[in-house]
Amino acid sequence: MKKLKNLFDNNQAWARAIKEKNPDFFTELSKQQTPDYLWIGCSDSRVPENKIVDLPAGEIFVHRNIANVVVHTDLNSLSVIQYAVEVLKVKHIIVCGHYGCGGIKAAMDNNKHGLIDNWLRHIKDVRRFHEHKLEGLSHEEKLDLLCELNVVEQVRNICNSTIVQDAWERGCELHVHGWVYDIANGTLKDLDDCISSNAQLAERNLKHQ
Ligand code: CO
User: Which one from 92, 98, 130, 156 is the annotated catalytic residue?
Assistant: First the structure.
């Protein structure tokens, strides 16, 4: 007997439903992918990118990790970004955090969590950079704001990567967006932090000093 039969049943029904609507869907998709979007999100099971923006398979290239962090030296995320920008030629990179993020919560408490604390260190750094903005807020407000500040920080990290810098120098159209998803109501919030050139990056850096 197949293990996890329910998942295979779901898969059969899903593939059948798509083929009924569009018989060539999978044949066409098997030839190539041409997504316009790279999504960098949290691993949280409640934040499924394709469902949230209601796009079918083939439309979003994806990288997810705990608390949607892009570290300058993380070859995993950098490789995804490079492939997305240079080979797939995506036009939009979306960093999407979410309220109620366990990674953000863990970075705000003073408990030990083992290995993951080394990863959460990056978020603790974000907290340290913006300590003055968090002062005086309630615990819940702090968590929500840190979710947003973390997204803004990761947008900066992506923009400062050699990959995005080189793409802009080549004159490529490439926009880096910062969004936050609200698990409690299923809606996305645009942090209005889209950066599309080095001039805009410099402008934002001045504003955030
Ligand atoms: Co999360």
Answer: 98
